[in-house]
Design a protein that fits this description.
By secondary structure, the protein is an alpha+beta fold. The chain is built from four helices and eleven strands, in the order αβββββαββαββββα.
Amino acid sequence: MDDVRSIFDAARARLADLPREGLGRMTHPRRILGLTRAPRIVPVGTAWHLGVLLVGDATVMATGEITRAVDPGRRGYAAESARHRAELRAAALRGGFADGDTVHFGWTELDLDAVARGEASGPLSGAGGEPMVRWSASGGLAPLRGYLDERIELLRHPPPGA
């Protein structure tokens, strides 16, 4: 089987000059004098976003939720889901991300050693002697090397309007 770590090391070398996105972790500050403070999404690093994968300097993660750090603006919402999204955007801003930053949270670190042994970890799998990635919940498996090549090319040359 191809060495999974070497595949990601080669991808990191190709990604070096491309922009990264913020990684955050949701925190719920303790109460002060009985008052509950609003949750925050605090920065914990950066990574390149490649579809279902987040590639950091030393780790690879499965994507979780994504938001943008912005002031939520108006407070009247027609749907509870819109209110929730606005609260997440505000939590990222309160946590210390710059206005407009893309923030990933709820991600899961993947076990590349397990994949190298032929096991699965998140969307990665070592089935059939070649590292594979499941690119969507209902999608099939694709060879990891080809998937990364395609995603890096899309990051380097995004389609018009993206």
